[in-house]
Write a structure and sequence with these properties.
Structural class: mainly alpha
Order of helices and strands: HHEEHH
CATH topology of one domain: Arc Repressor Mutant, subunit A
Shape: flat
Number of helices: 4
CATH superfamily of one domain: Winged helix-like DNA-binding domain superfamily/Winged helix DNA-binding domain
Strand content: 5-15%
Helix content: 55-70%
CATH architecture of one domain: Orthogonal Bundle
Distance between the termini: 13 Å
Length: about 100
């Protein structure tokens, strides 16, 4: 759960609760690692793969709406600013969590 919580920038407790709920709802499959019985692997279920395309379609539609009437240079500027904001947030998160 440590790798997942670091990837998502959330604490381990929250990651565990979310994963348990997704398993219970049938969106994730959890298996034990064959080499290291303490480790687990998470995989998307067929149910989650079925809705994935719809989620991406909606996300792309939202992005398209957000950038309507933007010039290419403006879109690139927004992208660079968001990258910088993400870096700042990651640094802060790692400092707080001491990861």
């Amino acid at each position: 759960m440590t790798q997942l919580s670091c990837l998502l920038k959330i604490d381990k407790t929250t990651a565990t609760k979310v994963v348990q709920k997704l398993i219970k709802e049938g969106f994730l499959i959890k298996t034990k690692d064959k080499a290291d019985k303490r480790s687990h692997h998470l995989y998307p279920s067929s149910q989650s793969l079925d809705i994935y395309k719809e989620i991406i379609k909606e996300e792309n539609k939202t992005i398209e709406i957000c950038f309507k009437d933007f010039y290419e240079a403006q879109i690139e500027s927004v992208y660079e600013l968001i990258k910088k904001m993400r870096k700042n947030m990651e640094e802060d998160w790692y400092e707080i969590k001491k990861v």
